[in-house]
Amino acid sequence: MAIAIYVTSIDAFSGKTSICIGLGLRFKKDGFSIGYMKPLSFSAIQMEGKPVDQDSIFVGKLLGLPTPSEDLCPIALTPQMVESILAGKEEKDHEPILMEAYRRASEGKDIMILEGGATLREGYLLNLSTPYVSDILETRELVVVRCPHANERVIVDDILAARARLGDSMLGIVLNSVPPSKLPFMEETIKPFLERRGIKVYAIIPEDRVLKSITVGEVLDTLGGEIICAGEAIGELVEEMMVGAMNVDSALNFFRRKRNKLVITGGDRADIQLAALETSTKCIILTGGLHPSPIIVSKAEELGIPMILTSYDTLTAVELIEKAFREARFHQEKKITRIEEIMEERFDIERLYRELGLR
Predict the structure, then answer these.
(1) Gap between the Cα atoms of 223 and 308, Å rounded
(2) From 100, 131, 344, 354, which residue has the greatest number of CB atoms within 10 Å?
(3) Residue 149's pLDDT is what?
(4) Above 80 in pLDDT, residue 151?
(5) Cα angle for residues 16, 18, 23 (degrees, 5° grid)
């Protein structure tokens, strides 16, 4: 029977997928036969006439699993399907579907990795809460806790609440996306406190620019804009965002502060656009629907830096792109390589193996 790890989290976009990928690749490297499943998803889309969860398909392919999509995520619900359930138009017992899919996916495997929903609260709508699913599938939970500039007391309270909810089956936690300024406090104060309370801390992972980056293509999709040059570079990763609203005298020094960035400015600010092109810039967003000078477009094309025209004003564009950064996915090769490096550097895999009884 496979040993099962349920990677779950307290909040959405905490980094569960990256931890699942990192663990899966490490387990394979160490010679274990693995399986993967996302028991339920409330963000499925229709593909070829059936609801599927795209993230689970991506992880399955990345880990080289032949598992069909209906077993990678056996309960995949679109927003429309959720509405039908709420309206009482659809009543179905999903538990047998989940159990049978898990039996197939775990057959002959040493380790099963399960990816939880957005939060520990997700699933009650279907009577399939995280604690219940963990219980019926006999898993151990690894809780991923995102720590971006948050109040430390709130983080600790959330972790203790998760332990109270999950009980002794909880393996421990991963503190993820920790700001560099807070790393010493997390390592020297928070980790010892949690360990004294019987909560194992398997990793403290700092914020990472590569992992939180998004592609130029994702920026384009987010803004619904028009790409006007260097379209072949839409796969490039953007790590930072800067707004070009200053005077031209200070623009160059300002833009030199950050690498691999996108710059948001008005289409009529040729001086700002030129300054951005002279620094480490991956993309320029032109707000207000104003087209740039042909000379600027020609220079951007020559440098291979895409320019995207959007009808949004600067403030709205910033808000949309900030949201895209918060919800960054892990579908790029550079990110996968970085995940492997971070897990090797930061995750106490030997401790996990001891806790699971693996050799």
Answers:
(1) 9
(2) 131
(3) 57
(4) no
(5) 95
What pLDDT does residue 328 have? 80
Quick check: 110 and 24 in contact, CB under 8 A? no
Confidence (pLDDT) at 150: 61
Q: What secondary structure, in 3-state letters, does the chain show?
A: CCEEEEEEECCCCCCHHHHHHHHHHHHHHCCCCEEEECCEECCCEEECCEEECHHHHHHHHHCCCCCCHHHHCCEECCHHHHHHHHCCCCCCCCHHHHHHHHHHHHCCCCEEEEECCCCCCCCHHHCCCHHHHHHHCCCEEEEEEECCCCCHHHHHHHHHHHHHHHHHHEEEEEEEEECHHHHHHHHHHHHHHHHHCCCCEEEEEECCCCCCCEEHHHHHHHHCCEEEECHHHCCCEECEEEECCCCHHHHHHHHCCCCCEEEEEECCCHHHHHHHHCCCEEEEEEECCCCCCHHHHHHHHHHCCCEEECCCCHHHHHHHHHHHHHCCCCCCHHHHHHHHHHHHHHCCHHHHHHHHCCC
Interval 172-185: pLDDT, tens: 999 999 999 999 99
